[in-house]
Amino acid sequence: RAKLMFINYPNNPTAAVANKDFFEKVVKFAKKYDILVCHDFAYSEMTFDNFKASSFLEVDGAKDIGIEFHSLSKTYNMTGWRLGFAVGNKEAISALSIIKTNVDSGVFKAIQEAGIEALTGPQDNIEKMNKIYTGRRNVVINGLNKLGWNLKPTKATFYIWIPTLNKMDSMEFSNLLLEKTGIIVTPGIGYGEYGEGYVRIALTVEEKRLEEAIERMEKAAITQK
């Protein structure tokens, strides 16, 4: 019987978002079946077009049955520094603390100091970063739509989740892109059986490179037209 439920919104790899109505259903379900909910909220601040991601803990009763994980990796470009925090149910946080204490001896203090500076310092860098990712998102969405895809602008994260060409499996399509264009994407099957038929694109390179990727696909006739 399930005792733990992991959810992640805004989502990696799909960029899907969830509203409070969804979280209310999660809380109701978790209370009914006595399940602890762990919400991965790493992309909480990486949002576009005036969209604001809802916290799972905003919902009444969420703190009774769940905790929420946050990361400095995305919001403050501290990927690899492995710094984050968890909030929520007191008993769950206490249990997590015991496990964490016995797994390692904590994060290097200088990294903790850097994290404090990030959290307490000016926050205008977040908006600047989101503008950069919005531009990159637009390049990819608009470019792929011109090649025959039918994609809607994502509201959060730096990922684009697209269906494969002509219903290819995700490994086949990923290999096609690599061999014909030199473009690397992540096969959806790597995220489980329900990811089959899709690939994930990361917006972690500048706009010119993304434009070049679209041009390479067009020249290689990799289109949905």
Automatic annotation (TrEMBL):
<protein>
    <recommendedName>
        <fullName>Aminotransferase class I/classII large domain-containing protein</fullName>
    </recommendedName>
</protein>
<dbReference type="InterPro" id="IPR015421">
    <property type="entry name" value="PyrdxlP-dep_Trfase_major"/>
</dbReference>
<dbReference type="Pfam" id="PF00155">
    <property type="entry name" value="Aminotran_1_2"/>
</dbReference>
<feature type="domain" description="Aminotransferase class I/classII large">
    <location>
        <begin position="2"/>
        <end position="216"/>
    </location>
</feature>
<dbReference type="GO" id="GO:0030170">
    <property type="term" value="F:pyridoxal phosphate binding"/>
</dbReference>
<dbReference type="InterPro" id="IPR004838">
    <property type="entry name" value="NHTrfase_class1_PyrdxlP-BS"/>
</dbReference>
<dbReference type="InterPro" id="IPR050881">
    <property type="entry name" value="LL-DAP_aminotransferase"/>
</dbReference>
<keyword id="KW-0032">Aminotransferase</keyword>
<keyword id="KW-0808">Transferase</keyword>
<dbReference type="InterPro" id="IPR004839">
    <property type="entry name" value="Aminotransferase_I/II_large"/>
</dbReference>
<dbReference type="InterPro" id="IPR015424">
    <property type="entry name" value="PyrdxlP-dep_Trfase"/>
</dbReference>
<dbReference type="InterPro" id="IPR015422">
    <property type="entry name" value="PyrdxlP-dep_Trfase_small"/>
</dbReference>
<dbReference type="GO" id="GO:0008483">
    <property type="term" value="F:transaminase activity"/>
</dbReference>
